[in-house]
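User: Second chain of the day. Same drill as before.
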Amino acid sequence: MSEDLDILLCAPRGFCAGVDRAVEIVEKSLQKFGAPVYVRHEIVHNKHVVQNLQNKGVIFVNELDEIEDKTRPVIFSAHGVSKKVYEDAEIKNIQFIDATCPLVSKVHREAELLNKQGYQIILIGHKNHPEVIGTMGQLPKGEVTLIENIEDIKNIKLNKEKIAYITQTTLSIDDTKDIIDALKIEFPDIKEPIKSDICYATTNRQAAVKNIAAKCDVFFVVGSQQSSNSQRLVEVAKKNGSKESYLVHQEFKLPIDLIKKSKCIGVSSGASAPEVLVDRLIDQIKEIRNIKVQDIEIIKENVEFKLPKELREN
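Assistant: Same format as last time:
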């Protein structure tokens, strides 16, 4: 086959500032405290990142009770944790370092402020996602009502007159807009965030996929099956014209026949997927076809978040 296969690489893609910061927190903690360092839950939703850190001496646990050596520090993941986890760490006298993404922390503070102001809070998000568990856990049970879709709005039972909504940071912008529009019809006086809770990286990555999806016969999003923002990118590609859209995770088998038939393939990666996995995917496609790679950048990202004070060098 002589014709080259066009590969359009979305930019921005991959690690966001919150993930960069979380991984750096773990690396710097290993340097400062030595191994082992504990991390509660996956630091970010990516097996490659997790395995790489395990090889350096990180022990991942689901709960603080699983920490065998309570003298070692524990890091809380980028997704954030409930108030109870902080309290448990204090009670158990465990040193913790908080790697919660500052944009998730912003939603936590927002929830607390709204609660103080007497609002009943509706959270738009995915049930059982660690970020949602952490956000709901900022307030007493019953103060935050979770909805996942428009249908859930009909079943909302509210005990306050003042109502506000907040959202998970990694949702589909288009789907969330539809839910918000439906909420505003049901509750015309609902208070909305001053600035959208969906994070800049989620917004930019979805816009970059939307920008090229219609040109692509196949779309690959590199990311973990647990990663909400990666799953949303696959949905965005499908909705915007690339019907054959796939999440490229560790167990994924490349559709060789589709690649052989394609003229153009789009590639992006979720906010917790390292660039080395994108390179690996392109190398695998290269074994099947001659390729021509083009970076399609829609916006430059220059966001950086400070490390926690205990890990700063000055």
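The first strand starts at residue 5 and ends at 11.

User: Great, on to the next one.
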